[in-house]
Amino acid sequence: MSAPAAPGTPAQIVETMRALAGSHPGFRAVHAKGVVCSGTFRGAPQARGVSRAQHLQGEAVPTVIRFSNAHGNPDVHDGIPNARAMAVKFQLPDGKNADIVALSIEGFLARTPEDFLAFLQAQLPDPATGQPRPDAVPRFLEKHPSAGAFIQRLTQKPVPASYGQSSYHAEHAYKFTAADGTSRFGRYHWIPEAGEAYLSPDDASKRSATFLREELENRLRNGPVVFRLLLQLAGQNDPTDDVTALWPADRPQVELGRLEISRISPTSIEDERRIVFDPTNVIDGIDLSADPILLARSAAYSISYDRRSKGQ
Question: Of 75, 103, 211, 310, which is least packed with CB atoms within 10 Å of its CB?
């Protein structure tokens, strides 16, 4: 098992993110700009062979979905190149919830919370000059090639043409246990039924600052936005505790189900502040891996929620 993050690290991560984004009281430290939707998920027949989790047994499950930009500024232009996210909360009949949090880019740029904090701190301005330190980020990337690989993947698909036409990949591995007691590790992937479509930063910058929400509103007028949930199964020697390590593309995939997003929530603005999507929020049949980034996220989310709920 990997050791948990040092007690102060999640708080330092949140504070550094807030410093980089600027002062935006009442908003998330990152992924500040988003839109909340509602929909329905139904597990595929083969999902039951992978996990006994309640929402994967084939019944229709109401869901809450949030699409977002990764930036900490809620007023950022939608055309800014950055990762996008899709978070899904499955609302189960017994009052429990299960969450999936996924990015438009596979993997992550740091293996540990301490490395992630170092990457964020490398972007802070020099206290003496107030200007960015030109050598700080290059030095970090030189010592952490996986971070450079992540950024390179981001530059290949910098801006989606639609929230509904990007694939989203859960960074972390989970252990899935079926009713017969067999277990496998896997990673989630949301695949858009409408296919993928991306814009160049130049084209995106010429569109409305809120074009992704506007496009989603128009798309939903013509019917639901649909994603298939796939599970990529780990091979025997694939690391399950390293969020920076991508598994080979030829690993088998199992279809877990289908998500139909039906509308934007009429209370989306209020939902933005009150709802927390936590990738450590799992139920029976799904267990956390020993990934140190995963194990630190819940504390960071709790700190961020506490700040924005107080209007800070």
Answer: 310
